[in-house]
Amino acid sequence: MANVIIVGAGPAGATLALLLARCGIAVTLIEAARDFQRQFRSEGLMPSGLDALHQMGLDSLLETIPHRPLSAWEFWLNDRRLFRADEPLGCDRPCTLVSQPPLLAALVQMAQAQPGFDWLAGTAVKDLLWHHDRAVGVQLADGHTIEADLVIGADGRASLTRQRANLPLETQPKSIDVLWFKLPAPAGYEADNRFCTVVKGGRVFSLFHGAEAGQLHLAWAISPEEPTQRDDWAETFAALVPPGLVDHIRAVGDAITPPQRLSVVVGRCPRWHCPGLLLLGDAAHPMSPVRAQGINLALRDVVVAANHLVPVLKIPGEAAVDPTAIDSALGRIQAEREPEIVEAQQLQAHEASRGELLRRFGPVRQGLSTLSPGVGPLVKQVWVNQQRPLRQGITAVRLEV
Ligand SMILES: Cc1cc2nc3c(=O)[nH]c(=O)nc-3n(C[C@H](O)[C@H](O)[C@H](O)COP(=O)(O)OP(=O)(O)OC[C@H]3O[C@@H](n4cnc5c(N)ncnc54)[C@H](O)[C@@H]3O)c2cc1C
After folding, report:
1. What is the pLDDT of residue 113?
2. Nearest CA to ligand 1 atom 38
3. Is 249 left (phi over 0), alpha (psi -120 to 50) or beta?
4. Ligand 1: residues whose CB is within 6 Å?
5. 156: CA distance to ligand 1 center in Å?
6. 191: part of which helix (H) or strand (E)?
7. CA 4 vs CA 25, 116, 335: distances in Å
8. Each residue of 362-400: b (16+ CB within 10 Å) or e?
9. Alpha-carbon distances of 62 from 18, 364, 374, rounded to whole Å
10. Which residues, at least 6 apart from 140, have a Cβ–Cβ distance to it below 8 Å?
11. Rounded to an integer, what distance in angstroms lies between the CA atom of residue 43 and that of residue 108?
12. d(CA 128, CA 275)
């Protein structure tokens, strides 16, 4: 039987481990963290990502995880709403916030029910093992080694497997970091969870109710050079949020969490694979947070990877594993996924540049804000039409195994 090592139990690694294990393939899933709580884990799932989970047969699992649909997208310029676009924007599912730690834990638990699945948590991979220029396994931080017919690097944007395999990452110039805050949510957001993007006073930030009950998230964009200041954040936010939120921000000021600084890396590997090793998700193509793409694209990578890998890894009886067949499947996976990744990153950059234009040029912002009752509906129509590929995906992705 073929055996696979997957490095990293984020959305890409955990779902691929489950799909392969369900098909009877021996899988060792290795995760550096002891549990899923310790790091920031994003929550936004677009209809395309929800569809990938649906194809994996995980709808009922999702129902058991804290989740919350978005009701609308709102854009505020200075103190005026430019427009509001109600979910699901012509799709069959609304964009939904899903709490990632319980989702990942549940995926691993499901995989553990499969024979041939091995789960190593709290153990970082430190190096790759090689034989005649082919990756044949990993070395763990505790010195143990594990061999495999295929190593999958699903270890995120700082991927160690990518570095050890010498697969270069071409990054876009770094334009933002994000300061992430959580604060008690105002009552109205439970019933009407709009994702508000605010551009005012030289700042761009977003506000929305997260998946967990009672928590408002505030994502504050800063330039990578800007230090994390010890601001009076409540007063800073109160001066900028939409008018209906000012009193609430002042009232809950003491409960605003200290900011968590998240570095944003965007890029792509020209080559996602080498003999015996494949990169997936952020390891191959780290995504910007704009319009919540990264988890969704990682899940869609997994669907395509499973389609190509199961036929070459699921070998009958005593038949030998064919490394050439595995390696040629790796090239087909990149070829099928790359066009969507390239276009999604271009669309994200386009969205970000429009926000940046409004942030930097006060007169443009002021003009649009003043004219919002007249031009808002038109701007909304253009925006909604442009969202389709970022919500529904760009290429057809169908699970066939
Ligand atoms: C501020 C911000 C907000 C975002 N918001 C969204 C959003 O709302 N929606 C969305 O779709 N995307 C969002 N993204 C992008 C999204 O978080 C990523 O694209 C997505 O998590 C990629 O999934 P992944 O499984 O490839 O990698 P990751 O989620 O990064 O998982 C990698 C896993 O590998 C483990 N690991 C790393 N190194 C090792 C090692 N050496 N050994 C063992 N394990 C290792 C890590 O602990 C981690 O669990 C956001 C990104 C940022 C920066």
Report:
1. 98
2. 155
3. alpha
4. 7-13, 30-33, 42-44, 124-125, 154-156, 160, 178, 262, 264, 281-283, 287, 289, 292-296, 298
5. 5
6. helix 187-191
7. 8, 10, 21
8. eeebeebbeebeeebeeebeebbeebeebbbbbeebebe
9. 15, 42, 41
10. 30, 120, 123, 124, 125, 126, 146
11. 18
12. 12
What spacing in Å lies between the alpha carbon of 54 and ligand 1's midpoint?
21
Are residues 178 and 226 in contact, defined by beta-carbon separation less than 8 angstroms? no
Ligand 1 centroid to 14 CA: how many Å?
Answer: 11
In this structure, what token pair is assigned to residue 323?
């490394």
CA of 87 to the centre of ligand 1 (A): 25
Q: What one-character DSSP code corresponds to residue 258?
A: P
The residue nearest atom 17 of ligand 1, judged by CA position, is 42
Strand order in the sheet with 194-200: 80-86, 72-77, 194-200, 203-209, 215-222, 177-184, 260-263
> What is the maximal distance between C-alpha atoms in the chain?
73
Beta bridge partners of residue 177, listed in sequence order: 222, 263
Q: What amino acid is encoded at 382 in this protein?
A: V
Q: How many helices (H) does the chain have, and how many strands (E)?
A: 12, 21
**pLDDT band for position 1 (50/70/90)?**
confident
Residues whose CB falls within 8 Å of the CB of residue 221, separated by 6 or more in sequence, listed in order: 176, 177, 178, 203, 204, 205
124, 250 Cβ separation under 8 angstroms: no
% pLDDT > 70, the chain: 100
pTM of the entire structure? 0.97
Q: What is the mean pLDDT of residues 256-268?
A: 95
Is 95:44 a contact under the CB 8 Å cutoff? yes
d(CA 338, CA 250): 46
The dihedral formed by the CA atoms of 335, 51, 169 and 181, expressed in degrees to the nearest 10 = 170
Core vs surface per residue 37-64: b (16+ CB within 10 A) or e: eeeebbbbbbbbbbbbbebbebeebbee
The answer to whether the CB of 195 falls within 8 A of the CB of 45 is no
Tokens of 106: 């549940």
